[in-house]
Amino acid sequence: MVIEKLKIFLGDLTYTTVTIATEALPINIGYIASYCTKRFGSKVDIKLFKYIEELEKAINESPPDILGLSNYVWSQNVSNEMFKLFTKKNPDGLKIWGGPNFPIDMPSQKKFFENFKDVDVYIPTDGEIGFSNLVEKALQMNTKEMRSKILQEPIDGCMIKNPDGNLLYTIEGARIRNLDEIPSPYLTGILDHFFDDKLVPMLQTNRGCPFLCTFCTDGRESVNQVNRFGKQRVKDELDYIAKHVKEDIHSLYISDLNFGMLPGDLETCNSIVEIQKKYNYPEKINATTGKNNQERIIESIKSLNGTMLMSMSVQSMDEQVLTNIKRANISAEKMVELSPTIHEYGVNTSGEIIMGMPGQSYASVLDTIRQLIYGKVDDIIIHACMMLPGSEMATPAERSKWKLETKFRILPMDFTVLGNGKKICEIDEIVVGSKDMTFDDYLALRMIAFTLSIVNRATLFEPLLKFLKQQKIDVSKLFFKMVEERKSAPKPVELMYDRFNKVTVDELYDSPEEIISLIQKDEEYQKLIEGRGAINVIKYHGAAVLSECMDEWTEYALSIANDLLWKNVTWNEEIKKQFHDVGNYCRGRCHNPLGKDRMQTNPEFTFYYDIIKWLSDNSDNMLLDECKLPEPVKTVFSLTNEQYKFINDTLDLYGDNLIGKTKARLLESTQTIWRKPITQH
After folding, report:
1. C-alpha dihedral, 490 to 456 to 353 to 376, nearest 10°
2. 101 pLDDT higher than 90
């Protein structure tokens, strides 16, 4: 007798031990559920899960026929534990994994199935077709024979491990070209349960990536074709999200891999603006903008009123490194050419660098930093190079070719204790050395990355950096010298650098097994609970600076800048007065951004130059001495009630501690955290 109704659990899991680790609403499994429901109607009973404890409880109490889980680097180990639990509760149940965290070479795929013995099927690309093909076959069987029969022959879009341990597969499954064939999981109400006070809505307008970057799981020819959802559907989803999102959630994620680069993205931005005017949401948009067609990207996002950064994910400006990783980039010269246009519309920029890639050296990373600074990028972010199993770089051949040396670390906030008492965590593998870069190089670059994350962040030290540039100072020297001379910094700053360096070393381990074994000890697991491990080291210590010693950090940056000016500029009273005003503007903007008393501590300074007018000149042709005020003016630096509420809501959501403040920094926009100057007349 065939199955009349198939009970299915789908999960895209996140940890919530200290705060929510992966806050994106689970639109991925929503797509699979809505597509299956469209195909099979009442023959399937599908329930979606985001929180680990809810899935664990449901499996224990009433296990399904099929358990399907998403597989990302931040959810692999917990998903594997759910599969183990499911095997015990329903030995005849089918266990399906899908997502990008899966090797692309056959030997590694076989090893993957050996390591994760409870997994029956893997769906490596867009999941709707492969998963629904499997469900279709399962509906033709009875419950007891379902698993054993499905594992006997290939199914399109799936990789199956048969009882003998051999892998059964066909040519990689076709992708859905017309994405509107997938019913909207928002408009059908499938995701309504997840509009809570923790999860941030996610929008997808297209799938696929035209680039072949070797470090990325989307750098595969099989997903090269970019397919789009319909314009009206996207507009309707935005309206639905805005109507249902909780008032304490202010952000929106866009999962497109190259947002702003495609022609239809301008219409999406216009739709977002309409939603913002109607609902005052979203206040912050998190998206990865495209790598090419920068003029189109500017046109797409300039209307968003500074709620979204324009990201320039260059990764490296070294042509040989770019060749090694199969990547084409916009040039630094092009960035400079576009910079006035970008800033004219209030669009801030971020530039991403990955250190440790094939052929990359310490010197080439420093040169990339210099070029991004020359390109007037507001926020330079330096990532460690993650070895993602679904990327070409993670294959044995690439590891050997470039002599990549790696270590392992616990992903930030990704740890918990399961109901059976087992402690688990998620682990990533990063490059800490190669034939072109030493471990000491890695540590030095991490220190520079930490410094950049504060001093070169958006508009924070904008007047200081602009003043140095106009005085013909190589601004990169400011960041490099802050690291080199940190022993002469104010004591709180020196200690912060020491803390950062120690944690950078201490977070690294030789193997995943070493980490898993270690955290089983209560005292080691307690360190994670207390925030002494499993943190984003750069952002965590950045939040610590903002909370504990931002004033001292500002004074240290100004003192290093002062030294650079003394050695390279002919000083006079005018230059001294200008630098004094620039310093006070930075002091005012940076003061006490996250303190509990931040609304009561409003610094006041007297200015002799119109700093705001000077900063508004994006051409950089206007010098500060052209902005001398006829009379000195007093200016107070304060936070608005809206800024205060945004930060408070974020800290209420993630915790009013350093871990919560780390998340707040991830979600902040330049308008929400830094003080605004108010001139006293």
Report:
1. -150
2. yes
SS3 content of the chain, % helix, strand, coil (to 5): 45, 20, 35
Tracing tokens 């001379």 back to the chain, one arrives at: 485
Q: At 410, which amino acid appears?
A: I
Residue 239's H or E segment, with its range, is: helix 231-244
CA distance 17 to 415: 7
Confidence class for position 521, pLDDT limits 50, 70, 90: very high
Would the pLDDT of 348 be above 90? Answer: no
Distances (CA, A) of 263 to 184, 267, 296, 357: 22, 8, 8, 32
Tokens 């404890």 appear where?
53
Nearest CA to 519 among 381, 378, 416?
416
User: How big is the CA angle at 434 (ends 432 and 437), to the nearest 5 degrees?
Assistant: 80
Q: Which two tokens stand for residue 301?
A: 């996002």
Angle between helices 491-506 and 537-548 (to 10 degrees): 160
Q: Cα 108–114–119 angle (5° rounding)?
A: 105
User: Which helix (H) or strand (E) is 518 found in, with range?
Assistant: helix 512-519
Give this prediction's pTM: 0.90
User: 55 or 380: which carries more pLDDT confidence?
Assistant: 55
Exposure string over 325-355, b if 16+ CB within 10 A, otherwise e: bebebbebeebeebbeebbebebbbbbbbbb
Mean pLDDT for 515-531 is: 94
Q: How many Cα neighbours within 13 Å face the side chain of 503? A: 23
Alpha-carbon distance of 67 to 46, in angstroms, equals 10
Residue 268's nearest CA partner among 250, 256, 278 is 256
Helix (H) or strand (E) holding 407: strand 405-417
Query: Taking every pair of C-alpha atoms in the chain, what is the biggest distance, in angstroms?
Result: 94
Both structure tokens of 674: 């830094």
Report whether 286 contacts 252 (CB < 8 A): yes
The mean per-residue pLDDT over the stretch 101-118 comes to 94
pLDDT digits (tens, 9 = 90+) for 464-514: 999 999 999 999 999 999 999 999 999 999 999 999 999 999 999 999 999
Cα–chain-centroid distance for residue 573? 46
Quick one: three-class SS letters along 570-617? CCCHHHHHHHHHHHHHHHHHHCCCCCCCCCCCCCEEEEEECHHHHHHC
